[in-house]
Design goal:
Blueprint: E1 4-7, E2 20-21, E3 26-32, E4 41-45, E5 51-55, E6 59-62, E7 67-70, E8 74-75, E9 86-93, E10 96-101, E11 107-111, E12 115-117
Antiparallel strand pairs: 1-9, 1-12, 2-8, 3-4, 3-7, 4-5, 6-7, 9-10, 10-11
């Protein structure tokens, strides 16, 4: 049975054009996120000079950690959410969850502190 989650606060993305990466793609690696809540996220840029935050678990590092191999298809898309929206949680990594909205099936990342299990 699917667990339903509810947003307890709103979230608005800072990135209007999120990076999308394909399995096997090589990216240039930047800095690790400095925030404790973003531990294990790293900035990555593809050949199109598009950049975004990627969980380090999805990257095999190469060349003294300057480049990385993407291990699975990935999107950095965040969802804009309002309080009391309902979701299905698909995956959770490094303080964020990939969720699907119940009302329209839109998917994306939201910070874990903005959602809770719907009792």
């Amino acid at each position: 049975m699917m667990e339903i989650w509810k947003s307890i606060s709103s979230h608005t993305t800072e990135y209007e054009n999120p990076i999308r990466l394909s399995k096997g793609e090589i990216v240039q690696l930047g800095e690790l996120a400095p925030e404790e809540d973003w531990k294990d996220w790293i900035w990555a840029e593809n050949d199109n000079q598009q950049g975004g935050w990627v969980p380090i678990q999805l990257i095999e590092t190469l060349d003294d950690n300057k480049r990385g191999l993407i291990l699975e298809d990935y999107s950095a898309k965040e969802l804009n959410i309002s309080k009391d929206e309902l979701f299905e949680k698909i995956r959770s990594m490094n303080g964020w969850s990939w969720v699907r909205k119940i009302d329209n099936n839109d998917e994306g990342w939201v910070p874990n502190e903005t959602i809770e299990i719907n009792a």
